[in-house]
Amino acid sequence: MDYKDYYQIMGVEKTATQDEIKRAYRKLARKYHPDVSKESDAEVRFKQVGEAYEVLKDPEKRAAYDQLGENWKAGQDFNPPPNWDAGFEFNGGGYTEGNAADFSDFFESLFGRGASAGSAGHRHAGYHAKGEDHHAKVLIDLEDAFQGASRSITLQSPELDSSGHVVTQQRTLKVKIPKGIKQGQRIRLSGQGSAGMGDAPAGDLYLEIAFNPHALYRVDGHDVYLDLPVTPWEAALGASIKVPTPSGTIDLKIAKGTTSGRKLRLKARGIPGKTPGDLYVIPQITLPPADTDTAIELYQKMEQELAYNPRSKLGV
Amino acid sequence: MTQTTLNGILLDEHTELSLNDLCRACSTSAEWVVELVSEGVLEPINYQQIQWRFTGVSLKKAQAAVRLQRDLGINIAGIALALELLDEIETLQARLSCLELNDDI
């Protein structure tokens, strides 16, 4: 078990006043709140800050923690010295911030599991309490949203074993991903969260869907975008060309005089659904390299025979 | 091990939830949901009727609202503002990532 430096986590001096600690907590909580923060480790950081504040906001717990001594370094292997807490009582603080179920082994070795259970009681009032909801992110491919799919997901959740110890349980669920699902949408699996207390039902499992980045397509809501490289002659003269779409290859007519970047809308070829999305094809005119004599000759011929000044509007 | 495929409920704009469903999923009171509605955070599908129905999108917002109030101590007006700004950031970031992908090509 690693020693945790709660002052370091909170970014305050050991001599900080209770007021300074509260301000530091408020700032960090806003910064790392999982609903607000975009940082990938936000949830972990938020829990750490909640745990640190749980100890430092309470003068009794803080005094007991300080008493462990100043020589500990964060991450150092730690076992509480015997009778370390003699003379301290930890019932006056109340557990209001954070979710005590998420607190570390380090916290529990000092302040006990009973302290955490107090929090559960505080939040749910009584012994019949619905189990906690769980949240997880599932990465799928864009194609899964077009065809529907089933995904096996492995979840890790802390649970109590028969002797009352916290162990990390792994479980694998197979979940149907419905056709037409979009980025950020959620699937609720009733009763797949934590078990309830007493007669109360289990919590739910919420899966939030995110797409893996795709080599060809970009997705915005239910619309899909594809950059389509075309030759200068296809763009200038018009052509019928083969275009990949998530639901299969199609033939697309490119109009005469097509310009780069002008969106072509293919109705209802985006993500399917009651109101299906559209597929936008964006032509990108690419130039053949002038790396052979023939190519150079052709470019020179164009230069000589086409009176074309793309900068006429710039007045030069 | 044989495994059955679980069919969840997709919480999208077509999902309909009652006020009761919403309260249960958020572990919160009806009064609190009513406050969120009057602040404009949540919009029932059928505002005029007695039996309100909400979409899956409302559920996502209500759950975020619960967490923001519990963890950060924000009041309802602050929650309304935070959620609006978060929505805007999400839209902007989606656009930005579209543009950044474009640059790579």
Account of the 3D structure:
The complex is a heterodimer of chains A (316) and B (105). Chain A is α+β, with helices and mostly antiparallel strands. Chain A contains 8 helices and 11 strands. In chain A, β6 (217-220) and β7 (223-230) form a beta hairpin. In chain A, α2 (18-32) packs antiparallel against α3 (42-56). The model of chain A is unreliable at 91-98 and 114-125 (pLDDT under 50). Chain B has one domain: Multidrug-efflux Transporter Regulator, Chain: A, Domain 2, CATH 1.10.1660. Chain B is built from 4 helices and 4 strands. Chain B has helices at 19-26, 30-38, 56-72, 76-104; strands spanning 5-6, 9-11, 17-18, 53-54. Chain B has a two-stranded antiparallel ribbon. The radius of gyration of chain B is 17 Å and the shape is globular. The chains are: A alpha+beta (316), B mainly alpha (105). The interface between A and B is large, with 45 and 33 residues. β4 (186-189) of chain A pairs antiparallel with β2 of chain B, so a sheet runs across the interface.
